[in-house]
Amino acid sequence: MKNIRNFCIIAHIDHGKSTLADRLLEFTKTVSNRDMQAQLLDNMDLERERGITIKSHAIQMTYLYKGEEFTLNLIDTPGHVDFSYEVSRSIAACEGALLLVDASQGTEAQTISNLYLAINHNLTIIPVLNKVDLPGARPEEIKDEMVDLLGCDRDDIIPASGKEGIGIREILDAIIERVPAPVGDPEAPLQALIFDSVFNSYRGIEVIFRIKNGSIKKGDKVKFMNTGKEYFADEIGTLGLVQIPKQVVECGDVGYLISGIKVAKEVKVGDTITHLNRQASESIVGFSEVKPMVFAGIYPVDTTEFEELRDAMEKLQLNDAALVWEPETSAALGFGFRCGFLGMLHMEIVQERLEREFDMTVITTVPSVQFRITNTKDQLINISAPSEMPEPNLINWIEEPYINAQIITKSDYIGPILTLCMDKRGMLKNQVYLTAERVELQFRLPLAEVVFDFFDKLKTISKGYASLDYDLAGYEESDMVKLDVMLNGEPVDALSAIVHRTKAYEWGKKLCEKLRELIPRQMFEIAIQAAIGQKIIARETVKAMRKDVLAKCYGGDISRKRKLLEKQKKGKKRMRQVGNVEIPQEAFMAVLKIN
């Protein structure tokens, strides 16, 4: 065990984590030159296209140091805030972290939030100043920032460049010298933490774990403590560029387990694996529960594919533990799922992965939350979609969920953040300066305003610095109304929303304008209306495409032209009564882009 080191790489977006991981793999000869490609660990098509890391990737390297061979387990993590749950899971499986800072950009928001995640798990932090070869690098200034942030010595900071391969040996030596070896008792009953899992259509579910105590041998009978399921360890091994089967995985190491598990529900990330005949007394304390920031409905375009979509969601949840979902129904779209995401990018990625990896075509609806209504018979009803809302004359009052939000930000951005929160009907409860630069703001906010684009806006106005944490604070009475959207007098269930009365007019107007741009023109006129109950509050019209019926009338009496136009008008009217409007997927997403 003394020759094992488990570490991850954490940093802000685009500070060079995946490129540095490439150099470490090359330097330790884990990957031959023939197999090498840029951002080697980003193996999903989406990651390659967008140039971002979405999944944490674990890989094992061996390195000779002073004549001894060391096993290094490296986990490359994402930098985008929407995938911070991946980072927290990787950190739970490590003893050390390389904290990368870009020499031209300095410490940024995710640098700080990932650093606090690592410090809370008592990880040893190795500061690395990356991209020192850039013409715009400011190494001395940035080193001062890092010393202030970490309280380390200037000499502890390793200058490096992932692109040029500068400082790679120093980083590897520092990992071996500074990161502690894993602690654990090889003789104790087996305790292994599941921190990731992947669905393989040929071999079932591959579970990726880190052993805290004990060891696991091929063919052992194991038990998952939270779900209580029992399996045989058909194949175990460690993670190189490809899986390397082993007879035994020792204490402190990271490995994978395949036992032909077919049902996705049986594997929970954060669960503990133990031996069936010699069980551990308690499970390992896993990581924090995931807190969704954006909620939306996902529905299959073809209603017969509901069960396939459920399967796809379960398999996707194995690989993306931050996805939270439960079944729901809608009058217009049939059966689907209400999903919770960590942000707008996360939502986009999930939708794209469903389409690519599982061939599902899905419609994503407007994000919303659950309201409580007390009706005229004094019954309490929970409603999670606008379609379930009773008529206004049957409602005594409506309550909406509120949250207590803690926002930590640099003091420069307090003004814009206060404006944003006031805009969202928030109340400032408290303001505490943590340091001269960092301030904590505590707000009480309606959840309905937060699930939407609050988080994205907060990140935008604070240049990515502000971090948001929240917990539910209960329900409060509020003046909410149901805003219906009608096309040619027909209400469209998927576009309606429950909004605060003060915002209803503005919301309806913007939504109608947006829909007018997105709904394609038909042979007949389309009226787009926003209404509260019977009262129309906004209207836009999509003009009809018309054939030029006057083309053949050159000269002659006006009555001939009028006769042809009247005939066309009658046809349009009849067509409007029977014609139905096709709504493109972009129109459902219009609501997200209203502001």
Automatic annotation (TrEMBL):
Residues the entry annotates as binding GTP: 14-19, 130-133
Keywords tagged on the record: Cell membrane, GTP-binding, Hydrolase, Membrane, Nucleotide-binding, Protein biosynthesis
CDD domains: EF4_II, EF4_III, LepA, lepA_C
Topology within the bilayer: Peripheral membrane protein
Keyword DNA repair recorded: no
Swiss-Prot/TrEMBL catalytic activity: GTP + H2O = GDP + phosphate + H(+)
UniProt-recorded Gene Ontology molecular function terms: GTP binding; GTPase activity; ribosome binding; translation elongation factor activity
Cellular compartments per GO CC: plasma membrane
Keyword Protein biosynthesis: yes
Xref: NCBIfam families: lepA, small_GTP
Function (record text): Required for accurate and efficient protein synthesis under certain stress conditions. May act as a fidelity factor of the translation reaction, by catalyzing a one-codon backward translocation of tRNAs on improperly translocated ribosomes. Back-translocation proceeds from a post-translocation (POST) complex to a pre-translocation (PRE) complex, thus giving elongation factor G a second chance to translocate the tRNAs correctly. Binds to ribosomes in a GTP-dependent manner.
Recorded family membership: Belongs to the TRAFAC class translation factor GTPase superfamily. Classic translation factor GTPase family. LepA subfamily. Belongs to the GTP-binding elongation factor family. LepA subfamily.
The protein's name: Elongation factor 4
Highest classification ranks of the organism: Bacteria, Pseudomonadati, Bacteroidota, Cytophagia, Cytophagales
